[in-house]
Predict the structure.
Amino acid sequence: MSIMHGRRHRLIYRIASCTILVILMVISGIFIIAPAPVAKAAPAFATRCGIHFCLNGKTFYYAGANSYDVFTFGDGSSSSTPDDIENRYMDKAAIDAFFANAQSDQIKVLRTWMFDHEAWHGFETAKGVYNEAQFDEFDYIIQSARAHGIMLIPVFENYWEAYGGIDTRLQWEGLGTGQSNRWKFFNQQQCPGCFTQYKNYVSHALNHINHYSGVAYKDEPTIFAWELMNEPRYENATPDESTSGTTLRAWVDTMGAYVKSIDANHLLGTGMEGQGTAYGYGGNSGNPFVFIHQSPYIDFTSAHPYPTESWANLSMAQTQTLIAKWISDSHTAVGKPFILGEFNSRSDVGNRTGWWNTFFGAMQQNDGDGDNFWMYVARNPDSIYGVAHGAPELSIFMQHSQFMQQKSGGSGTPVPTPSTTPTTGVTPTPTPTRTSTPIPTSTPTQTPGTCKVGYAVNQWPGGFTANLTITNTGSTAINGWTLTFTFPGTQQITQIWNGAYSQQGANVTITNVSYNGSIPPGSSVWPGFNGSWSGSNPSPTSFKLNGVTCSLQ
């Protein structure tokens, strides 16, 4: 372990200075009685409430993003003195600007790397050698995220070769690297040193004390959750392992238990991508979605869909079905929340607006818990997947973020962690407490040529949540919209988001609000509401948008 000597000298100087001051005050007869500090409520940690997340005792849904390189802002080499680290090694202005833009784009949770074995901005540059200058920079990332109202999902390690990944750890143990050898990292008989290395790094990170706040990472509420690894697999070992997942599950159990033994405060995820022939997405890679996520030490499931990649080649409809299947399996077979940990469409395929409507529509209609698009960039833009502040698709994202924020707030009971057995039951969705949406400031100025409406319901005895998807299938934009329909039963709307409503008997009118009045061709908006019912809760059979009858989705 490498320790920054400058920090020791600075600490000794401060202690000596304070001691001299106290002695002088005693000699002079000067005593200052400080007022008692005012107690402040401690920030809350994110928790799991059955199949959903909770924050401050209320259900919590989020829209977020990934940033793999925010930890590299700065020259990454000037670490001779504390001043060098604070002003050259890290670029605080760039970090603050990044989070300010993310805040304005309504990114609520950022998934990011906390691994690097390279010399430049490395966290662990040699076996057991931890670069405290880099942890100092991550300290500032936490500070800036907190100041901008953004929570973090740091990832401990990488399956892939970027920033060294587990190939470097295998190399440190004298083993082969590359895709054909990575399975050995998860097999304790093949690489016992890999287990020790990983645990030592996790322990160092969780116990690291932020030099700005004095708070250890394991006690930092700005951390939403940890992930064990980016996209772990157990490939190229045996055919049986490709489907059973026995060895990877054992590794997840071992490392999950170890993380929880140090940090019982935070949620923990696997970082898995959700591929498998059972889902019609990718192949079997020794990481079956349900079995691995049933680990009692894992708090939520994850998947990473990239449907426009040539190896995936999924349509929008197939992608919606895929996401719905992941969410269903997560909530029913696993009994835990679900996040899209990564997702996007290739820019060279086109129609990202339509694809993002597909991703977000599937999440909203199926009660998904959180999502992080790949990737939010400030520099070194990725021409295929990069999304920078000001990108047009962010208008769709912000509408989705509003939806997730307004959907949050229902009551929930946190699940203790770590669990002793996997949670397999399903908790009915509680009735959320929401604030009514303001009356819209725009009025319809254009009627659509055609439209399509989806109506998805999650219900419990006497109550329900309905998520609507209104899609403009015409060739011109809709500027201001009014949706009308009739309930077949006794349903009554009680709360609404992404719209304003009036109800006369069974007849309902929903109009746009200020931020979602425009629907470009091929795009969608997603109003939703809570309601009550008695007897039965049948869905409406007909919808009109600005007076025009829509097709049903």
About this structure: The chain has twelve helices and 28 strands. The radius of gyration is 25 Å. The longest strand covers residues 451-460.
